[in-house]
Design a protein that fits this description.
The complex is a heterodimer of chains A (about 400) and B (about 200).
Chain A (H helix, E strand, L loop, with lengths): L1 E7 L2 E7 L10 E10 L1 H7 L10 E2 L4 E8 L12 E4 L2 E2 L5 H4 L13 H8 L5 E2 L16 E4 L7 E2 L6 H4 L5 H10 L8 E5 L3 H12 L4 E6 L2 H9 L3 E4 L5 H8 L7 E4 L12 H11 L8 H9 L5 E4 L12 H6 L3 E4 L4 H13 L11 E4 L3 H9 L8 E4 L1
Parallel strand pairs in A: 11-12, 11-14, 12-13, 14-15, 15-16, 17-18
Antiparallel strand pairs in A: 1-2, 1-4, 3-5, 3-9, 3-18, 5-6, 6-10, 7-8
Helix pairs in contact in A: 5-6, 5-12
Chain B lengths: L2 H4 L11 E3 L7 H22 L1 H8 L5 H19 L3 H19 L10 H28 L20 H4 L12 H4 L15
The chains are: A alpha/beta (about 400), B mainly alpha (about 200).
Protein name (chain B): Cyclase dehydrase
Keywords (chain B): Membrane, Transmembrane, Transmembrane helix
Organism (chain B): Roseiarcus fermentans
C-alpha cells in the first residue's frame, strides 16, 4: 500500500509499504477513504517532538471502512462498517477509560516503559505520533491497523460525506473539549489564540456553548476572516496589541476564559522578543517549546479565570510566570483529547445540522501529493488552513 | 540499508515496512541550505579550534581572536541554516561572507608574503558567497506566501443554520456543573436539561 512516511526533519515521502495485518484478536483493518494533515503533524514534521524514527507512518485523522476484524472483536464492529478512527487508542477497560479519561488509557501505549520515563506515567497510544505514544503506524495511508478496534472507533452512518465526519477523529472534539473545559458562562468573553484548524473548532464550540463574546487571535488575514465568519471578533497580533485590545473589549478586566490553540510553535517575531529568545534556545536544545501564548494568557486573563490548553507542548518551557498564575488564582486545564467522551454528542450535532466541520477544508489532494501538501500547510501558502487527503 | 529499514528493530513485527521510497517533501533549495549549514558548522569549528594555523596560512598573524570570533559566527549561521529559519541562516551567511571578504582584502597587498594563499581564500569565499546568495534567494522564494493573493473565507461559518442560531445552542451543557457529569452526557440530553443563564 501507499503511505506518507517520516524520513527525518521536514522529509515526508509517499512510500510503498507492506500492508498492515491483524496482530491481536481485538485488531481491525480499515480501508482508508479519507485522512487529513493535522497541525500537530507539523510538530513531527519539524522534529520538535522526540522519538520519531525514519520509516514511521504519519497521520492520526482517519476514516474508512472496516475490511477485516480480529477474532476478539465483539459485535460492536463488523466488516463493512463505516468508521471514523479517534486519534487516541483506548482499551475501554482500564480505570482511566472507565472514568472517561480516554487520552490517558493505561493499556494502549505499547511503549509504556519509555513513556513512563518521559512523562512519569504512560499516556494512551496514539496513531502516527512518535514512539513515546506507542509508535503505532498512522492513518495517512491506504490501510490502517486499529488496535483495540472494538472500542477505538466511531461508527458513522452512510449518507453524510467524509468531509463532514472525518474531523470527529481529532480537531472537532479537541476544539470542543477546549471550550467545554473552559466552563463557559453566558457572560464570558473567551479569547482564543491561534486560528488554525483546532482554533477554528474551538471558536465554533465556544459560540455553541453560549459565550457572550469570542475573540480570535492570529496574524493571517484569511484565517481571521474564517474566524470572524464563525462569530469571533478578530485580533491581528501583527497590527495591534493583543493585550490592549483584549483589555479594551473587556473594560480593562481581561477575558474570563483563554484558550491556547497554538502550542509549542508560537510565531517568532521581533515584535514579540520572548519568541526570539525561545527560538534561539530551541535551536540549541535548551528549551523544547515557545510558550509565548501561555505567558500572554496568564498576563491578560481575568483573575479567577480559566486557561484551557489544547495546543500541543513537547517538554520544557522557560519563563512561565508562575507567580502571576498563582496570585491571580487561574485554573489551568489541558490534555490530549478524550475523543470518545464527546463523539456521540458531536456526531449528533453534525447530523442535526448544528455544525458542519467541513468549513475548515481549504485544500483537497490525493495521498501521493501529501508530501507537497505538508509544505504548503506548513508555509501557510495559498491560504491553506486544512488539508484533506484521499488515497 | 536505509534508516527506515534499520529502524525496524524498534517496531513490532507486523508493522508496515518501507518497500520503495517516494519523492520527498524537502525541496532542493532546502537540501542545499542543509549542506551549507553543515559546511558552515565544519568551517566554524575549524576556525574556533585551529585559529593559529588559519591566520598563519593567510598572513593574518596576530589575529587569532578575530578568526575565533568568525568561527563562532559561522557556527551560529550554520545552526540557523539547519533550522526552519533557514532563509535567515543563509542570509546571515551572505553577510558573513561580506565580512570575510572585507577582512581578507587587506591581506591581498604586496606586503603580505602569503598573499597567494590570501588570494586563493578570497576567491573561494567569493565563490561561496555567490552560492550563498543563490541559495538564500531560492530558500526564501520556495517558502514565501504569494503576496496579494488572499483567499476569501468570509462565508465559512461552519454553522449551516447561521451564527445567530448557533449561539448558545449547546449551552445546556453548562447545566451539568462538573466535567465528570458532562463526560457522560448522552446524545440529545440537553433537550431535557434545565435551561441556564
Amino acid at each position: 500500500m501507499r503511505a506518507l512516511v517520516w524520513h527525518g526533519k521536514e522529509d515526508i515521502r509517499c512510500d510503498s509499504v507492506s500492508d498492515p495485518q491483524i496482530e491481536h484478536p481485538r485488531d481491525a483493518i480499515i480501508k482508508v477513504t479519507s485522512c487529513a494533515i493535522c497541525g500537530s503533524d507539523l510538530h513531527l514534521f519539524h522534529n520538535f517532538i522526540p522519538a520519531m524514527l525514519p520509516g514511521d507512518i504519519m497521520g492520526h485523522e482517519t476514516m474508512g471502512e472496516v475490511v477485516e476484524v480480529g477474532s476478539g472483536v465483539d459485535g460492536r464492529l463488523a466488516v463493512g462498517d463505516r468508521v471514523v478512527i479517534p486519534f487516541t487508542i483506548t482499551c475501554g477497560e482500564c480505570d482511566q477509560c472507565r472514568a472517561g479519561n480516554f487520552s490517558v488509557c493505561q493499556r494502549s501505549n505499547r511503549n509504556k516503559a519509555l513513556a513512563d520515563k518521559a512523562f512519569g506515567h504512560a499516556t494512551a497510544g496514539l496513531f502516527g505520533y512518535t514512539h513515546l505514544t506507542g509508535g503505532y503506524p498512522g492513518g495517512q495511508a491506504e490501510y490502517l491497523r486499529v488496535p483495540f478496534a472494538d472500542t477505538t472507533h466511531i461508527k458513522v452512518p452512510d449518507g453524510i460525506p467524509d468531509e463532514k465526519l472525518l474531523f470527529l477523529s481529532d480537531i472537532l472534539p479537541t476544539g470542543w473539549q477546549a471550550a467545554v473545559q473552559a466552563e463557559i458562562e453566558p457572560t464570558d468573553t473567551v479569547a482564543i489564540w491561534g486560528c488554525g484548524p483546532v482554533g477554528q473548532m474551538a471558536i465554533r464550540s465556544a459560540v455553541l456553548l453560549g459565550a457572550e463574546r469570542v475573540v480570535a487571535i492570529d496574524r493571517l488575514p484569511e484565517r481571521l476572516d474564517m474566524a470572524e465568519a464563525g462569530g469571533a471578533i478578530p485580533i491581528n497580533f501583527e497590527t495591534e496589541s493583543v493585550i490592549d485590545r483584549l483589555n479594551d473589549l473587556t473594560g480593562g478586566e481581561g477575558p474570563h476564559k483563554c484558550i491556547d490553540a497554538t502550542g509549542l510553535e508560537s510565531h517568532v517575531s521581533a515584535a514579540q522578543p520572548d519568541t526570539l529568545i525561545d527560538r534561539m534556545k530551541q535551536m540549541i536544545g535548551l528549551e523544547t517549546d515557545r510558550p509565548h501564548v501561555l505567558r500572554e494568557m496568564i498576563y491578560v486573563c481575568r483573575p479567577a479565570g480559566v486557561l484551557s490548553i489544547p495546543g500541543v507542548y513537547a517538554g520544557i518551557d522557560d519563563g512561565i510566570p508562575m507567580g502571576m498564575l498563582m496570585n491571580k488564582g487561574l485554573t489551568v486545564r489541558t490534555g490530549q483529547t478524550h475523543v470518545a467522551r464527546w463523539s456521540d454528542d458531536l456526531l449528533r450535532r453534525i447530523e442535526d445540522g448544528q455544525i458542519d466541520p467541513s468549513f475548515v477544508i481549504t485544500h483537497k489532494a490525493r495521498l501521493e501529493d501529501g508530501p507537497d501538501m505538508y509544505r504548503v500547510f506548513r508555509d501557510k501558502q495559498d491560504g491553506c488552513v486544512k488539508v484533506f487527503l484521499q488515497p | 540499508m536505509s534508516l527506515a529499514n534499520l529502524s525496524r528493530i524498534a517496531r513490532a513485527e507486523g508493522d508496515p515496512k518501507v518497500l520503495q521510497t517516494g519523492r520527498s517533501s524537502l525541496p532542493t533549495a532546502d537540501r542545499v541550505a542543509r549542506s551549507l549549514g553543515w559546511f558552515s558548522i565544519a568551517l566554524g569549528l575549524t576556525e574556533l579550534f585551529a585559529p593559529g594555523a588559519i591566520a598563519r596560512t593567510l598572513g593574518l598573524d596576530g589575529r587569532k581572536g578575530l578568526v575565533r570570533a568568525y568561527g563562532a559566527r559561522e557556527i551560529g549561521a550554520g545552526v540557523v541554516s539547519l533550522s526552519t529559519e533557514r532563509s535567515l541562516g543563509l542570509w546571515s551567511r551572505v553577510a558573513g561572507d561580506a565580512l570575510d571578504l572585507a577582512t581578507l582584502a587587506p591581506a591581498l597587498g604586496r606586503d603580505n608574503p602569503k598573499r597567494r594563499a590570501a588570494a586563493l581564500a578570497f576567491t573561494l569565499v567569493a565563490g561561496v558567497a555567490l552560492i550563498d546568495v543563490v541559495a538564500a534567494g531560492s530558500a526564501t522564494a520556495v517558502h514565501a506566501r504569494a503576496p496579494n493573493r488572499r483567499r476569501n473565507y468570509r462565508d465559512r461559518s461552519g454553522f449551516p443554520q447561521g451564527v445567530a442560531a448557533a449561539r448558545g445552542a449547546a449551552a445546556a451543557l453548562r447545566a451539568h456543573d462538573d466535567l465528570a457529569t458532562a463526560r457522560r452526557l448522552p446524545a440529545g440530553s440537553e433537550a431535557k436539561a434545565p435551561a441556564v443563564g
